[in-house]
Design a protein that fits this description.
binds adenosine-5'-diphosphate; ATP hydrolysis activity; 231 residues; membrane; Sn-glycerol-3-phosphate ABC transporter ATP-binding protein UgpC; 27% strand; transport
Length: 231
C-alpha cells in the first residue's frame, strides 16, 4: 500500500496563480522520497499541502488509507523539520525533545523512553542537559530532527533542513540522516520521508527515489541510479 498518495493535486493561490498542476505521486511505506528542482518549482508548496499548512485546491491527498485533504496538521500523522529549527532557548535539549509530548499529555515514563530512544538514534545522549546556545549548528539540527522522531509520525517532512549549515556539516548530516532512516527501518519503526531540497547532491545521495519538479509539474520520478544514467 502506498503510504502517501497524491492524486491530481493542484494549487491555485489566492491571487489566482497556479503553482501546482495535477501532480500524481505515490510514496511507498518506509520510502525516502526527495523532491528536487530549482527555486519556484513548487517543492515547498507541495510539502506544505501534505503538512496541512497550505490548502489543497484540487485533487486528493491520502496518508495511509485516510483522505486528509481537510484534516488539521495535528491529525495527519506527520512531523515536519524546517531549516529554521528554532529550539526553545530556555529549555535543555531533553526538555526541547519532551515538550510537545508533554503538551499532548503523554505519560512521563513514555516521554522519557521516547526521548532517550531518539537521542540514541541521533547519537546525542551526551547533549541532553545542554541548552541550545551550547550546541553547534549540526547538533541543533539533530535536536530539531529529534523533535520529529519522538512524535513517532507516519510521515516525516523535511523542508531544506540542511541549507543553513556549512558544506562540511551538510555532508555529515546527509550521512547521518540516511543512516537514521535505515536505523528506523531496522528498529521496526520505518519512516516514510518526503525531503525537499534544491541541492542535486543531497537528492542523489539521500533519495531512494527522486521526484524532479519544474514549474509545478513532475518531470521524472526515479531512483538516483536511473536518473544518473538517463538524466
Ligand atoms: P519552491 O519551494 O520550489 O522554491 P514554492 O513552492 O515556494 O517553490 O513556490 C512555487 C510558486 O508559487 C512560485 O512561483 C511562487 O512564487 C509561488 N507562490 C508561493 N507562495 C505563494 C503565495 N502565497 N501566493 C502566490 N504565489 C505563491
Ligand atoms: P518535569 O519538568 O515535568 O518534572 P522532567 O522533564 O524534569 O519533568 O522529568 C521527566 C522524567 O524524564 C523524569 O522522571 C526523568 O527520569 C526523565 N529525565 C528528565 N531529564 C532527563 C535527562 N536529561 N536525561 C534523561 N532523563 C531525563
Amino acid at each position: 500500500m502506498a503510504h502517501l498518495s497524491l492524486k491530481k493535486i493542484e494549487k491555485v493561490y489566492a491571487n489566482g496563480f497556479k503553482a501546482v498542476h495535477g501532480v500524481d505521486l505515490e510514496v511507498r511505506d518506509g520510502e525516502f522520497m526527495v523532491f528536487v528542482g530549482p527555486s519556484g518549482c513548487a517543492k515547498s508548496t507541495l510539502l506544505r499541502m501534505i503538512a496541512g499548512l497550505e490548502s489543497i485546491t484540487g485533487g486528493e491527498l491520502h496518508i495511509g488509507s485516510k483522505k486528509v485533504n481537510e484534516l488539521a496538521p495535528k491529525q495527519r500523522g506527520i512531523a515536519m523539520v524546517f531549516q529554521n529549527y528554532a529550539l526553545y532557548p530556555h529549555m535543555t535539549v531533553y526538555e526541547n525533545l519532551a515538550f510537545g509530548l508533554k503538551l499532548a499529555g503523554t505519560p512521563k515514563p513514555e516521554v522519557a523512553q521516547r526521548v532517550r530512544h531518539a537521542a540514541q538514534l541521533l547519537e546525542m545522549e551526551h547533549l541532553l542537559e545542554r541548552y541550545p546556545k551550547q550546541l553547534s549548528g549540526g547538533q541543533a539540527q539533530r535536536v530539531a530532527v529529534g523533535r520529529a522522531i519522538v512524535k513517532k509520525p507516519e510521515v516525516f517532512l523535511f523542508d531544506e533542513p540542511l541549507s543553513n549549515l556549512d558544506a562540511k556539516l551538510r555532508a555529515s548530516m546527509r550521512v547521518r540522516l540516511t543512516e537514521l532512516h535505515r536505523n528506523l527501518r531496522e528498529s521496526g519503526q520505518p519512516a516514510t520521508v518526503v525531503y525537499v531540497t534544491h541541492d542535486q547532491v543531497e537528492a542523489m545521495t539521500m533519495g531512494e527515489r527522486i521526484c524532479v519538479l519544474k514549474e509545478g509539474v513532475i518531470q521524472q520520478v526515479d531512483t538516483p541510479t536511473a536518473l544518473y544514467d538517463h538524466p
